[in-house]
Each structure stands twice: as C-alpha cells, then as structure tokens.
Design goal:
The protein has 92 residues and is mainly α. The protein has seven helices and no strands.
Amino acid sequence: MSLNAQDIRTLRQRLGWSVAEMARRMGCSTDLVTKWESGALVPEPESLNQLRYLRDHADGNSERTLQKPVAEVRMEAGRLSQLTHRDLLKDS
C-alpha cells in the first residue's frame, strides 16, 4: 500500500514529530519531508519503506503513541514553561 502526502503528514503528527524531527530520524532534509507532505515529491522506494515501517509501528503501538510525552506531562503538572534535565530525572 502506498502512502500519499496526507498519509505522511498524518503519520508524522501521530508520532508527535516536527518536520525537523522526522527529517533527522529518516536521515533526510526538512525540505524533502515538506515536499513529501505537500505532494510536490513522491518518496523514493527506500524512504517509502521507512515510512511504512513507521506507520506499522505507530499502528501497532497506537495506545503508547497517543500518550503525551513525559516532559509535557511534568510541565503541565508543575505549571512550568520549561524543564531542565534534572526535572526529568526526579521521581514523580
């Protein structure tokens, strides 16, 4: 099954990644990810395989994927605007 531009954007958002984060993890440029999501470019076969793997991982772990990141939960609980690494190491 192929992934279209909307599928790629939806996948990235489900993973909670920015365009920059997806590009970093896939080893490509942000410009390339943006072009995939706009439909200006179709991913090459190797990139499509990576995207399918990510999609399958997101589908198989959808409950975990939908959870808020630990940092976000801690920030909300402590009414903080930012965290340090020490904040994340503290026990809840």
